Structure formats: C-alpha cells, structure tokens
C-alpha cells in the first residue's frame, strides 16, 4: 500500500518553466532563453549562479532579489497542469502529500502560493534544504521523514529522468509524469501516469520497482 505521495514541482505540478526562464531573462536583459539553454541553466545550483552565467558578471543579493520580484510577476500567469489541483484535494485526508523540488525555497514559495497549491501540501522540501541535489536521494528522504513514512511506501512523481532516478535511489516508487515538461517515454519510471488523476489509481496498487540505481 502507498502511504504518501511526493511530487516534483516545476514541470510536474506547475507549468512554470517558461515563467522562471522569463524572470531570469528580465533581470539580465536577455532575450527569451531557448529551451536547450534553459535545461542547462536549471542544472546550476542557485539563482545567483544562473544570473552570473547569463550576465557574465557576479550576481549579488540585489540581483537575486530582483529575480524574485520578477518571478512574483511572472507567477501570476502560472497555472497548475490540468487536474493537479483536484488530485491534491482528493489526496487530502487519504495520504500525506509533499513536494521535493530542485528550486530553492524562496522561488518555490512564490510559485506554490501564487498558484494556490501550497495549502494543499503537508510538507515542501526545496533544493536548498539539503546538501546534495537530485538524483541524490537526500531531499526525497527528508520529505518522507517529515511525512512520517518510509520512502519504500511513497510514490515520487516527476517529469525528468533525474526525478525518477532520485526515487529509485531513495527506495521510493518512481512515477513518470507523462504530462510533464520534460517527460521522455521509456525513462526510468516503473509506473507511468498519463494524467495527474492516474496517480490516484496507484494508491491501492503496488507498482513494480526498478533496480536501485547507483548513487554517485
């Protein structure tokens, strides 16, 4: 039986990737950032690192604060993927739910509050809450501890290979969000959810688990 559901945020719960990229572009005076460059930038560890990369000069607290202000504006146009709000509401009272995202805590709070999802979650773990980034299992393990469940009893739903490998490394059940921004068919996930509502069907099922991935 599944005892908890943990979600990735950007590209899984929220269609937010373009808004985040637009906020970075606005602060640095860049034209729209191409998708391939967005994917590369999102591997950098902090907003300051991304701003430094884009601008070619060291970004300090003022530039980071400007990014958060720009993101708050962009967040007004961000929406959860269709069905996400209803699924989170349906999970309430059935199993605890949380988020583990690579985004930092400030950006995560801006986006979850702007889209009305924050109060539907029992815990939120951001990328800067743990020392090691995905696909290391630290953040997912922390989310499960906060929810009071073992990782083996949790689903982790995400759109990227890194999300799914994180689940495997934590011993959780990986669920590929096929509606998501970066979903790649045939990836690590043992279970594939074509739409958010499909996650509800997995609560009483026991998806097969892939072999634990090597930790690096």
TrEMBL record:
Keywords: Hydrolase. The keyword NAD does not apply. GO terms for biological process: DNA repair. The keyword Ligase does not apply. One of its GO terms (molecular function) is phosphoglycolate phosphatase activity. Pfam families: HAD_2. This is HAD family hydrolase.
């Amino acid at each position: 039986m599944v005892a908890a559901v943990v979600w990735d945020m950007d590209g899984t719960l929220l269609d937010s990737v373009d808004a985040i990229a637009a906020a970075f572009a606005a602060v640095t005076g860049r034209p729209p950032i191409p998708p391939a460059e967005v994917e590369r930038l999102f591997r950098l560890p902090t907003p300051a690192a991304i701003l430094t990369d884009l601008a070619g000069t060291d970004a300090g607290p003022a530039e980071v604060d400007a990014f958060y202000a720009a993101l708050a504006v962009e967040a007004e146009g961000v929406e959860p993927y269709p069905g996400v709000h209803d699924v989170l509401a349906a999970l309430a009272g059935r199993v605890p739910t949380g988020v583990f995202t690579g985004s930092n805590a400030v950006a995560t709070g801006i986006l979850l509050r702007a889209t009305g999802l924050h109060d539907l979650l029992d815990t939120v773990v951001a990328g800067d809450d743990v020392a090691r980034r995905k696909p290391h299992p630290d953040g997912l393990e922390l989310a499960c501890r906060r929810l009071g469940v073992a990782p083996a009893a949790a689903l982790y739903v995400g759109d990227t290979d890194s999300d799914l490998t994180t689940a495997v490394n934590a011993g959780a059940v990986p669920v590929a969000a096929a509606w998501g921004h970066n979903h790649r068919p045939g990836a690590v996930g043992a279970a594939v959810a074509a739409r958010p509502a499909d996650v509800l069907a997995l609560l009483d099922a026991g998806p097969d688990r892939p072999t634990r991935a090597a930790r690096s």
